């Protein structure tokens, strides 16, 4: 009785890392770009609101994400630049840029969650509005936009983790240009001395029509 053992085809084994590399690349690009867009959008929205007492009345105050903290917006730009730079470097440089991308996402999450309970920006506005440096905002409340910024940071963090794990399988922008420079230059076509127009074209190209 004969037994047949299934042996995986070498081509299928080689194609598996390539497929996982393409999937991780697409996911990292999607997560990184979407996360940066969400974080930048969230920092422009209203994060906190309250009231300040002015001449016996209540004056409404609001603070945007950029008023509370500028860290998420700055790190979103850094993360987006790092995502692009991943394809411009190789080996240790790619690992370092991927680590920067990961840290950018983590920093956005930490800064956004810290800003959820931060009322200092509104306190400063209350002091400026009332003219009293000791004035503080009353009826302080926060919106959901800090959590949206944190979600954007999580997406950038995931993009960085994918770059750390699968970045070695991703293509590099410089590889295309390096392969292009390795191509041998074509030798000039011999000039037919019986055709004057070819002689003039060779002279215009800076070639010696005599072939010397």
What is the CA-based Rg, rounded?
A: 30 Å
Strand line-up across the major sheet: 2-1-3
DSSP strand tally: 3
Termini Cα gap? 76 Å
Would you write up a description of this structure?
The protein is mostly helical and 212 residues long. It is built from eight helices and three strands; from the N terminus they run αββααααβααα. It has helices at residues 10-43, 65-68, 71-85, 91-115, 120-130, 145-166, 173-181, 196-204; strands at residues 46-54, 57-64, 138-142. It has a three-stranded antiparallel sheet with strand order 2-1-3. A hairpin with a 2-residue loop joins strand 1 and strand 2 (57-64). Helix 3 (71-85) runs antiparallel to helix 4. The chain is elongated and about 100 Å long.
Layout of helices and strands, plus pairs?
Layout: H1 10-43, E1 46-54, E2 57-64, H2 65-68, H3 71-85, H4 91-115, H5 120-130, E3 138-142, H6 145-166, H7 173-181, H8 196-204
Antiparallel strand pairs: 1-2, 1-3
Helix pairs in contact: 1-3, 1-6, 3-4, 3-6, 4-6
Quick description:
This protein has helices at 10-43, 65-68, 71-85, 91-115, 120-130, 145-166, 173-181, 196-204, and strands at residues 46-54, 57-64, 138-142.
Keywords summarizing the entry:
about 210 residues, mainly alpha, 8 helices, 3 strands, elongated
């Amino acid at each position: 009785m004969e037994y047949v053992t299934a042996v995986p085809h070498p081509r299928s084994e080689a194609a598996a890392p390539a497929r996982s590399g393409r999937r991780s690349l697409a996911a990292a690009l999607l997560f990184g770009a979407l996360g940066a867009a969400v974080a930048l959008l969230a920092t422009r929205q209203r994060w906190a609101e309250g009231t300040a007492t002015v001449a016996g009345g209540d004056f409404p105050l609001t603070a945007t994400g950029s008023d509370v903290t500028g860290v998420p917006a700055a790190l979103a730009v850094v993360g987006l630049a790092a995502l692009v730079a991943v394809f411009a470097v190789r080996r240790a440089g790619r690992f370092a840029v991927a680590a920067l991308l990961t840290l950018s996402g983590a920093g956005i999450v930490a800064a956004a969650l810290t800003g959820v309970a931060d009322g200092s920006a509104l306190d400063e506005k209350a002091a400026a509005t009332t003219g009293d440096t000791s004035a503080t905002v009353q009826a302080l409340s926060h919106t959901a936009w800090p959590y949206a910024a944190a979600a954007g940071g999580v997406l950038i963090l995931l993009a960085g983790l994918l770059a750390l794990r699968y970045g070695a399988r991703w293509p590099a922008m410089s590889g295309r240009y390096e392969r292009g420079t390795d191509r041998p230059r074509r030798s000039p076509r011999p000039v037919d001395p019986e055709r004057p127009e070819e002689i003039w074209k060779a002279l215009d190209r800076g070639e010696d029509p005599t072939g010397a």
